[in-house]
Amino acid sequence: MARRPGSIAALFVLSLIAVPIGAVIWTAGGIAGLNAADWAAFRFTVWQALVSAALSVGLAIPVARALARRRFRGRSALITLLGAPFVLPVIVAVMGLLAIFGRSGLVNTVIGVLGLPPMTIYGPQGVILAHVFFNLPLAVRMLLHGWLAIPAERFRVAAQLGQPVGRLLEKSMLRRTVPGVLAVVFLVCTTSFAVALILGGGPRATTLELAIYQAVRFDFDLGGAATLALVQLGICVLAMAALLLTDVPDALGAGLDRTVDRWDGSTVRDAAVLGLAAMFLLLPLLAILQSGLTGLERMPVSVYAAAGRSVLVALASMTLCMGLAIAIVTHGRTWPRIVATLPLSLTALVLGTGLFIVVFPMLRPSSVALPVTALMNALFALPFAVRILSAARDDAEAQFGRLADGLALKGWARMRLLILPRIRRPLGFAAGLAAALSMGDLGVITLFASGGQETLPLAMFRLMAAYQTEAAAGAAVLLVALSLGVFWLFDRGGRVGAGT
Q: Lower Cβ count inside 10 Å, N or C end of the chain?
């Protein structure tokens, strides 16, 4: 009985996936075969996702280590700002990347002064660069939670023994944490759409997501789109199976939640690592702000109404996402967690088309545009929330589960006294992430919304389509501010008093 909420939540998520995909396959009259272009898209998708994940996590390890080892003024603000790229709307972030790495961007300007040939951001290298830009912050935060979960007593034991922290503590933590982070980043990169569309530079850099878009938008080949969506689903299942096979149990034991006093590592080296990471992640953000501040006064009044709708949708989406994530994570079974990761491998275009097919005979699609958008945003944020909370919940059970059993703590009492206090910090991070991702989403809403129901990303997109460039830049700044604002609000709420 205690595990029933997790099973119900997983079945609900599974139905949200199966029903739309089934509707698309039914309407198409079945699935289709893969042609040469589809196989090329498959190979490129897997290759760039592997390279992007390896680079993102490899670069995130020294950054997370530096943040875990150092305490300095402004550290909390830096942690929040370093997370900005992942929660930014993709279109807005790509605009910032082009301002720094584009043909006339800052990097090429410096290269030109040095007399070197210019670099191009278009092609496979641009796709990988953008994926590292987006996913490095996510990897840093997930790894940082791993470092902060190491009991302070273990560091004191290492100091007394005169042993290196890396060999005794960090290696064990990384062996347990890195596979999960790699899996999440890999799956995020397999569903790349806007990045491949803008920076891909042609057939050589076509992802499965982009191939699905082309099948639906230009060919209306629903059978082909459904086939490619099932291929993405297969990639997700294989990645999660590999993660389960490499799962390593926690061997660090419990602690008393004392503040960690670190003595190891070079302060200068950590400062250099954090400085380089901040430059790479924050310069594009500054470029966005610089270009958009002058456009704020040119925005129509309707943009502010759209911003209000986006905030309401984001709060509703976050609430639903966290409810599902907590139900799935706190009841311990493996199969609900696998189901929760499936949305990572699916495309909003196929699910949105399927929902449109399901809703159209019964309701006017525009009448349910905002609820459907909140539902889909919660679905696509769920894999991140489950992955972020799973490790913290499992650690709490491993460290204090026997004590809770001895005290006969079950149900809500166990949740209130054991689980929630131990997952407070990642819970705030996951809630902020879910709300921010919903704020910047431009997916299902484009299929359902009509006049008076647009969200802020859709309003910005329509301003861009109408060649109101300055107003669109102003809307981008407003979107960035709101996305970072909701992320900071929940993330900070989880970290206050949690020793970070």
A: N
Is residue 500 in some structural domain?
no
Q: Which of 403, 254, 401, 419 is nearest to 330 (CA)?
A: 419
Cβ atoms < 10 Å from Cβ of 438: 30
Helix pair 90-101, 267-292: axis angle to 10 deg: 110
CB 326 within 8 A of CB 431: no
Q: Does residue 138 fall inside a structural domain?
A: yes
311-359 pLDDT per residue, tens: 999 999 999 999 999 888 876 667 888 888 888 777 777 787 788 778 7
Instruction: Answer whether 446's CB lies under 8 Å from 91's CB.
Output: no
E strand or H helix at 352: helix 348-359
Helix (H, G, I), strand (E, B) or coil at 49: helix
Note whether residue 275 is domain-resident.
Answer: yes
Distance CA 310, CA 455 (A): 5
Asked whether residue 379 carries a pLDDT value surpassing 60, the answer given is yes
- Residue 112's domain spans which residues? 4-495
Report how many domains make up the chain. Answer: 1
From 11, 9, 18, 33, select the one nearest 354 (Cα to Cα): 18
Per-residue burial over 454-484, b if 16 or more Cβ lie within 10 Å, else e, is bbbbbbbbbbbeeebebbbbbbbbbbbebbb
Residues 352-373: pLDDT tens digits?
A: 778 877 877 777 767 777 888 8
Burial bucket for residue 289 (CB in 10 Å: 0-12, 13-18, 19+): middle
Q: How far is C-alpha 87 from the geometric centre of its chain's CA atoms?
A: 7
3-state secondary structure of 200: coil
Residue 173 CB neighbour total at 10 angstroms = 19
Contact between 480 and 88 under an 8 Å Cβ cutoff? The reply is yes
* Any domain includes 67: yes
pLDDT for 1 equals 42
* pTM listed for this prediction: 0.75
Distance CA 182, CA 247 (A): 12
What does the alpha-carbon distance between residue 188 and residue 232 come to, in Å, rounded to a whole number? 11
d(CA 240, CA 342): 9
Give the integer Cα–Cα distance in Å for 52 and 135.
8
CATH number at residue 314: 1.10.3720.10
Rounded to whole angstroms, the Cα distance separating 73 from 169 reads 26
Cα within 13 Å of Cα(208), Cβ side: 32
Q: Which helix (H) or strand (E) holds 74?
A: none
Give the Cα separation of 260 and 156 in Å (integer).
9
DSSP state at residue 252: S
- Which residue, 60, 82, 482, is CA-closest to 282? 82
As to burial, measured by CB atoms within 10 angstroms (0-12 exposed, 13-18 middle, 19+ buried), residue 250 is middle
